[in-house]
Specification:
four-stranded antiparallel β-sheet; two-stranded antiparallel ribbon; globular
Length: 101
């Protein structure tokens, strides 16, 4: 039996990238802690329909209490846009319009 178009998920069609946790459970997190690679905890790969990683992301909290979303593109800089959906509306970072810190 084949899936009809209506049964395909946004992951199947490529409309959304599928999240894949680097550490899917607490045992995996503990193993990473023991290995000294704690900076990798919480990373999530988002893969396309070909199972290639498009971006790796995680969220951290700074000493000032602010949350920071970290995005590490695995595609060309001209192939990714960032949309921030906040209470005051939408902010978009288009390729070539961001500044380096």
């Amino acid at each position: 039996m084949t899936q009809s178009q209506s049964e395909l998920s946004p992951y199947d069609t490529g409309a959304r990238c599928e999240p894949k946790l680097w550490q899917p459970d607490s045992e995996a997190v503990a193993a990473v802690m023991r290995s000294g690679e704690a900076e990798d905890i919480g990373n999530v790969d988002f893969t396309n329909e070909e199972d290639c990683t498009v971006v790796t992301a995680h969220v951290s909290r700074g000493d000032d209490g602010m949350y920071t979303v970290h995005l590490m593109p695995m595609c060309g800089d001209d192939e990714i846009r960032v949309e921030f959906h906040g209470e005051k509306g939408l902010a978009v970072i288009e390729p070539g319009t961001s500044r380096l810190a």
